[in-house]
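Consider the following assembly input.
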Amino acid sequence: MAKDIVISAGDLSKIYRRGAEEVRAVDGVSFEAAAGEMVAIIGPSGSGKTTLLNLIGCLDNPSSGSLSVGGRAIFGGQKALSERELTLIRREMFGYVFQKFYLIPTLTVEENIMLPGAFYRAPGAKDAHEVMKLLGIAQRRGHLPGELSGGEMQRVAIARALINGPKVLLADEPTGSLDSKRTEEIKGILRGLARQGITVVMVTHNLDLARSADRLLEIRDGKVHGA
Amino acid sequence: MNVYSIAYKNLLRKKTRTALAAGGIMLSAWVLATLLGFNKGYQQGLNRDIDNMGFQVLLTAKGCPYEAATLMLKGGTGLRYMPEAVVKTVYTNPEVEKVTPMLMHGVFDPDKGENGAIAAYLGVDAVSYPPMKAYLEFKQGGWFKDNNALEAVLGYEAAELETREVGDKLLIPGVEKEITVVGVLKRSGTQDDGTIFLPITAVQALFNKKGLITGLGIKVKKDADINAFENKLYDLPDVQVVSMAQVKTTIMNLVNSARVIVMGIAGIALIIAMAGVINTILMSVMERYAEIGIIKSMGAMPLDVFKMIWMETALLCGFGGAAGIGLAFVTARLAEAGVRYFLPYAPNGALIALDFGISGAAFLLITAGGLLSGIYPAWRAARVRPLEAIRIEGEQ
């Protein structure tokens, strides 16, 4: 039985203007990702990987093309969604993980994980303790980010992205600042999340991590060259 | 975990900067509360001093009204004189309950201080003056036995300054006469504390002012129309009528002029504190640009971010304002000593009257000013676009 399609992008493009020059950061990308699928986007620096991830995550507006998330047309529909509507979709559908973690240094691990809940508590929101246990950081709940290792910080960032029970986890270079041992840990965690039905879309330079994905999207000059 | 606790913890991130900004607000609140307290205290002190004079109207020889006011409040010298007969004329008015004549005289005392100073003596009527000043209590002795006696009653501070007790002699410079101290008053918190009282006839004789007085204190009957009575007094030749209400108004007009300047300074202090708040919070927003972007990517609405940043301002102003008002209470007596140093003729009693109303008004003003100054940084933060914030951070 075919899995549910969570993300569907059709001929998605993002064009920037740099003076008279036109830069096609993403050029006619089409792809689909199903629930529980792990997709890795790879490619050289400046190829448009992060721009594509931002378009999928509704953080940026495409110049053309269509995008639907969870069956709902986000871009390319009859009517463009307002910033407020995009925010509502972001908080219901996505969890974001960034290379630099962006943890709030004055909040403890537990408080950082609960931060999204201070603004919005989703119906499917998870218990912070459960998420911490899942990611193996329960014993660090009272610590500040400054007292954690890089791997632990990334796990806290993943926990924070998961707290509101997202359908899609978007990760931009999730292991970019980690050593190989920590990279393995994060790989295992992302794989485990995909097994639980969360669609994981990640941008990475790490080929080992990319190979652990169900599907690879190779991007060069904004175009998909291999899928 | 809510927006308020996040705001509080954000303030703790840069403790020194937060402390400096809160310190600026604290100083503004201190200045504001102290000035508001001074304004009230000065007015209360002035009212108290004038009410304690015991009479509502003062008749003096025609001259400068400010000089008359000075006579009433401080006992000025170089005054004009009225014939003593005016006492009888005034007393015949049905509105009058009591009158008391006074003769102020000052002489240069070369032994006073380092370079000499004026010694002032207030001649008062031994019969009519004490009942008018019923609130005066004696530390030692009592009033002089009659109006011819070469006796003196010293106010509390005058006795300390002259280092005299009951039974001691007091030499009057110029006339080289000795008078005996028969009474020392308790501290009254009024101008009487610094006064040397002598019997009026004795002063007239000592200083060659027979049949003359400098002022006539008039106590009006309770149900009498003071304004109508004052108008009647204006008909008397070569006299000037000064009512307590006029004195209060005249002095308060002068005080109000000074108050405008002082409040202007307080306003400037408030504006500086507000600029400090804007700078601190804006700097904090700029430093957390990416973080705010991440919070918005998590689903925070612009209003959530606005609330979070505005709450930081409110907490900063709340803490700073409360500390400043606390400081104003603690340093009120010290500030009062400073005011008295620069304004030696300020009214007696507490000059800085801080109370719940004044503290509340100062706190509200500071908090309102702070919240107003927090609008711009909060608005800037609310407008942060997640992607832009993350991209800028990525480029750094």
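The interface with chain B takes residues 54, 57, 59-60, 84, 87-88, 90-92, 96, 98, 100, 102, 104-107, 111, 114-120, 160, 164 of chain A (CB under 8 Å). Ask yourself how this observation constrains the way the partners meet.
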